[in-house]
Amino acid sequence: MNYKEEFIELMVKSNVLQFGEFQAKSGRITPYFINTGLYKYGKDLHELGKYYAEVFNQRCDHNQSVLYGPAYKGIPLVVITATALADKFSINVPISFNRKEKKDHGEGGIIVGKVPTAEDKVVIIEDVITAGTAIRESIEIMDGIGVKNIDSIIIAVDRMEKGKGELSTLQELENELGIKTYPIVNINEIVKYLYNKSIDGKIYIDDQMKQSIEKYLNKYGAR
């Protein structure tokens, strides 16, 4: 298996990727749901970090990059990505993440870890982007400390859905802000790999589920 296939299997085995009928934050009724908060064990997090690291190693500049994790889910994600980069690729990058409330004692400030500078290339580590709200908040935080260069965003899954218009939220972010987003996998890759495939004796995407996902993407998929 390649790392994308390993990642898909990790998601289903950890119950992070579920199939059925769910209401998304957007109000859409979706046949699948991703909840990265269900990664509970050290081994799963260790594996997850390696998949984020694979994308960084292939897509991002290894020099002068700072990994940034938006609170709260982005905090463990940025930690496991940095440790996987050091362990697997001998790439030593600093991390940073934000506090929800600015600290006015001790070292102070809103950023924990390496405070990015104008010379740094900030790579945001996220789980799934829906409306892009957390990304825009991160950009405001960076702007507040004088950092204009958000190099890229790495996410777990690209749902490939429409944002405000016909384009996906990821395409809108790139057009609006000039920031490229790199997913570990997208929904088409998930469907292709899991369709009629048995994992631990269970088929997650059969003919009926495949049709449900295709129907959903025909309605809400980005053009």
How many DSSP E strands? 10
The helix-and-strand class reads alpha/beta
**SSE order, as H and E?**
HEEHEHEEEHEHEHEEH
Number of H/I helices? 7
Distance between the termini: 30 Å
Mean pLDDT value = 90
Could you say what the CATH topology is called?
A: Rossmann fold
Q: How many domains, in number, for the residues?
A: 1
Strand content: 25-35%
Mind telling me the CATH class?
Alpha Beta
Oligomer: single chain
Please state the overall shape, judged from the principal axes of the Cα atoms. globular
Strand order in space, largest sheet: 5-4-3-6-7-8
Instruction: Estimate the helix proportion, in percent.
Output: 25-40%
Radius of gyration: 18 Å
CATH architecture: 3-Layer(aba) Sandwich
Parts with pLDDT < 50 across at least 5 consecutive residues: none
Sheet with the most strands, sense and barrel status: 6 strands, mixed
